[in-house]
Design a protein that fits this description.
The complex is a heterodimer.
Chain A: E1 3-10, H1 19-29, E2 42-49, H2 63-67, H3 72-81, E3 85-89, H4 90-95, E4 117-119, H5 121-130, E5 133-136
Parallel strand pairs in A: 1-2, 1-5, 2-3, 3-4
Helix pairs in contact in A: 1-3
Chain B: E1 2-7, H1 16-19, E2 24-29, H2 35-38, E3 40-41, E4 44-45, E5 54-58, H3 59-64, E6 77-80, H4 82-91, E7 95-98
Parallel strand pairs in B: 1-2, 1-7, 2-5, 5-6
Antiparallel strand pairs in B: 3-4
Classes of the chains: A alpha/beta, B alpha/beta.
Amino acid sequence: MATTKLGFVVTRPGYKSENPKLALTHAIASQSVEIYLKDGDIVTADIAFVGDGVLNCLKDQKAVENYDLNSTESHIKMSLLLDLNVLVCREDLDRFGLSEKDIVIDAPEFGAEVEVKVVPYSEISQMMEEMNHLLFF
Amino acid sequence: MKLVTFVSDYKMTVDTLDRLKPEKLGIILVQNGVYHATTKENGKPSSMLNYSANYYVLQEDLETRGLSAANVIDSKVKVIKFGDIVDLMFNEYDKTAWL
């Protein structure tokens, strides 16, 4: 029985390229690999938004209305539905003058029970040290 | 020359804008360029707003990112829609560039 820990670190703002959203789709997809694993083996995925990447977390994104695109916001909420650990760097939010009220925190409309955690970078750094694989987007 | 330039990135790695000397310069902030109009880092507005230019920001790209006209930090930046960009290109400027 083994646990493989994946860490997805988003450092860039969204939409200009698909890249930051891919971190979320990969993390979500990682939760559907059970059929390829031995009994008892699991894969966990943590997602961290740091640097300019925290701008992905602004709420009220109207990507569907304007471009018929699923929003990064909805991907974050889907991650919460899957109980993924979603971290946002507090120092980087502060740098942009943003706070928890400006970003996606929960997703009750999706039935999600966990919330986004705004944490100091030291906690994100600790998370990264605990991962088996780190992927930067 | 009357030049209108699209700025589509937040972090610019080129200084092309510094080298352009048109008689009239327009800067249209699109895609991730819209953050120049809305975002202060450590309390300071983007240096992108320091040029002697007419500034515009695309409303659709603001809204896509969870922003709106209310988030625009400098009144010299005019919020416009796609149709307005077409009008600007055809009526106000001779050339366009994309950064």
